[in-house]
Write the structure tokens for this entry.
Amino acid sequence: MNQREDIRQLSKEQLHKVVAEMGEKPFRARQLEDWIWTHAAGSFGEMSNLSKSFRGQLEERFDLSRIRLSEQQVSRDGTIKCAFDVGVGKVVEGVLIPTTKRMTACISSQVGCSLACKFCATGKLKLLKNLTAAEIYDQVEMIRGLAMDHYVKPLSNIVYMGMGEPLLNYSAVVESIDRICGEPGLAMSPKRITVSTAGIGKAIKRLGDDEVRFNLALSLHAANDAKRNHIMAINESNNLEVLADAVRYFYEKTGTRVTYEYIIFDGFNDQLNDARELVEFCKHVPCKVNIIEYNPIDSAEFQMAKADRVEDFVKLLEDCNIIVNLRRSRGKDIDAACGQLANKNTPAQAN
């Protein structure tokens, strides 16, 4: 018996062609898309406004399977960490981050990660696979449901800041955003979506060429090549000069302000001179800076910066007219905070 094709891997054009080949009228393709992408149907049998014979043909030819929410943990602060089973013993994690103003889904793009940043728990895992656009989409759809179930509030924002490097799974990430923002789909605004990268110059330029409408965040963490090399191996092939060129190109093509993420570590990148170097890097394009509390992980060499150092660091940036947000960690008690996603409940092993 031949393995059935995953219907969610078909493009809109391919899906409409298949429906026509089956002898169905064009509006049936739209109904089918609605079931797949808007209503998150888990089987063809649920598609009640399609004929029984049509559903039978679809069942015979195609597979319609979704990732499974296998576990969830609720933090004292209301953050919810989710473990998603993506098949063959592989699990990724996603997080719902509730605040008074926002309901944010932090989602993954890969199972594990290949970049091995020293401060990140995910970086200690092997890269096991790239997620498909549908698997990324499912995380959003399921976390969206949790937001309504737990808080009776709609999902307002999405950040691709979970497991993996999104720009090393470029096509699937962009396709997932097209689905999330589309109709049929979740009809979210791309301006509510942020893709975070450790810094891959060519891919950032590709985002510019594609004139994407979502937001870009660059995980900078040091505006000094020697320090960035120490904590992020990717900097050896994508140094600050390469990244400055890439973000300039991105801004010229999209007109979108770039966000720099800066995890502040005690005694490493928390000095006023580090802040001055960051100010210089911020001159390349209109930007804002998110200063992020560090969340210690097992066997890491870093600690959270002291409050007075963080305060002085932020003040210097603000005195230089840089937009700064200080991000407090959420979900630390369930290892759901930034940099802590490590699949402790999965067979993925650290290197």
